[in-house]
Amino acid sequence: MQFKDLQLNKPILKAISAKGYEIPTPIQEQTIPLVLAKKDIIASAQTGTGKTAAFALPILQLLFDKQDASKKGKKIRALVISPTRELALQIEENFATYAKFTNLKSTVIFGGASIEPQKDVLRKGVDILIATPGRLLDLHKQDCINLDYIETLVLDEADLMLDMGFIDDVKKIERLCPKSKQILLFSATMPHKVVELANSILNEPETIDITPSQSTAEGVLQKLYYVGKNNKMELCLHLLRNTIKGDILIFRRTKFGVEKLENMLKKNGYSVDSIHGDKTQKDREAALNKFKNKNVNILIATDVASRGIDISNLDAVINFDIPNVPETYVHRIGRTGRAGNIGASYSFCAADEKTYIKTIEELIGDKIPVEAEHPYPLDPKAKPEVYFKKGTENKKNRKSAGSKKNKKRWY
Ligand code: AMP
User: Fold this and answer.
1) Alpha carbon of 274 to ligand 1 centroid (Å)
2) Which of 141, 191, 357, 411 has the highest Cβ tally under 10 A?
3) Is the pLDDT higher at 48 or at 345?
């Protein structure tokens, strides 16, 4: 199928061609006609599938076709809600690129940045607004945003949005828009709470499922290293010295872990930067740009900070900590080997992460190949470490610590 078969009009086809896209991706093939037909949509799709263009292109077309020249000033007619600032910025960049040959204007608003310049742009008028939930409600409360003319509402990365505690904000935003609007909901995974939200706000939605769980995993050379928790730093250095080269994204579970690893790698002479939730917007953008522009070749990130960010052509992903949500593993390693490149993923599993590997393998329907030949193997008898709540490390607790009954751990 060609883009022109999707009934897109000239200015949009021109922008697609200028961007160098030749054929639509599967999610674009399925989504574009439904959006143009004004259907509500619930779509399972991860980043990297081309989902941004899948909603941005038809939205632009709908807005372009129905422009009312008599209306004074621009009204916000499409609203995209995104959980993170980075993702919101990326979506806006996409809209701006695809709208290049139209007179449609978009802007992005997010927290952690000065509010006044955002108000200035809104005052001048835009057709499409991309926003994180908190800042949107804040500006709405200050009367800087009118949602009365919204025709299409997009909820992007809905699962992450709910994980981040935005459920009430999302519901509130939905209620602030006109009842008659079209809603497009995109989510990498479909946990019960996302389906529940969809059921409560979508109108007879069409379902689209582009979850290439297995194929994403299959396209990547995967390696699993069993290693003691305290030896992960050493193993990482060993692999960076001997095995892993090029542009590398390292995932850690916590901000603290990100910083610890960053300091250690810097001390060892590596060019590295990081993104996590405690960094300012400016610092996160600077780190991302440094990585994209190849000023540093290693970026360390938490899942939340990096989710949805389009970092392509990665040579390797290191799962320094094994994710406890199996879909996150597929998500992470799917960042390598994009656009036909072969990527590699290196996962470091300590004793207390073995159960996560089991659930990941269940999801991908395959065993992750184990690399046993390395200098820091995990003692096969090693038991998961047990952490006591302060003041509870009495004899009784200690005795039961290794027992099957005592599943509870405190970190
Ligand atoms: P997304 O899933 O929206 O984050 O898109 C992932 C990447 O795919 C982005 O870099 C897009 O520019 C690119 N992309 C989107 N659609 C196409 C297409 N039809 N052909 C080639 N690249 C595309």
Assistant:
1) 24
2) 357
3) 345
